[in-house]
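3-deoxy-7-phosphoheptulonate synthase: structure, please.
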Amino acid sequence: LSSREFHPSDTVVDVDGVKIGGNEEFVTMAGPCSIEGREQIMECARIAKEGGAKILRGGAFKPRTSPYAFQGLGEEGLIYIREAADAYGLKVITEVMDEANLPLVAKYTDILQIGARNMQNFKLLQAVGKTNVPVALKRGISGTIDEWLNAAEYVVSEGNQRVIFVERGIRTYETATRNTFDLSAVPLIQKLSHFPIIVDPSHGVGIWDLVSPMALAGVAAGASGMIVEIHPEPSKAWSDGQQSLNEKRYKNMMAQIDVLTKAM
Ligand code: PEP
Ligand code: MN
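Here you go.
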């Protein structure tokens, strides 16, 4: 159902008026890795909006490597991100980590993010497939293209026909960057599937000064959008500060993206 063979034309995912895919405009989703509080997410929403993003990102349920690391604010965070997005006319994307929290997360968000660590959590994929909320499906940490396409199939075979692929880098022998950002996935997924693909240069490289060049490369590769981490004060971020852009750097990147998208 997700293959290009089955459905030759591009599927445009309509997120309550914000269209992703096909010949639609490049869509940016920006925000912090974690929602840290009401003021922080409100400030991120302001920055995101001023830079031209249409969707606010932020995690309330965080899949952390260590069980002792900050796990997210839970429902309190969902309330804050919804409030901040509404205040600035933005849509919300946030991660759902397990089936048990799906009804709660779905109540607040416009897009359900499936994290890299859950790309093959088949029960969760089936559960989001039973909703009618758009699903941003991140590529697994060691996910092959075929496994990723099959993960999408788990969602769409349950009825939900609104999937957005997110290339966020894969684990290779290279350790100088957090992941190896596989930009070839963009044209490859477009060849194999009718669903849109966006890029996540933040997790793709893990180092802030490499984010903007890779975001531009994502545009050039033909991605339908991107998801990027920003923070008012990256050095004080509770998670992923090292890969987060401050206001000035984010806005500079967005201005460059604007020039590039207009030239394409
Ligand atoms: C995130 O978006 O903050 C995140 C945890 O991403 P990933 O699942 O790609 O690691
Ligand atoms: Mn993050």
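Notes: The mean pLDDT is 98.
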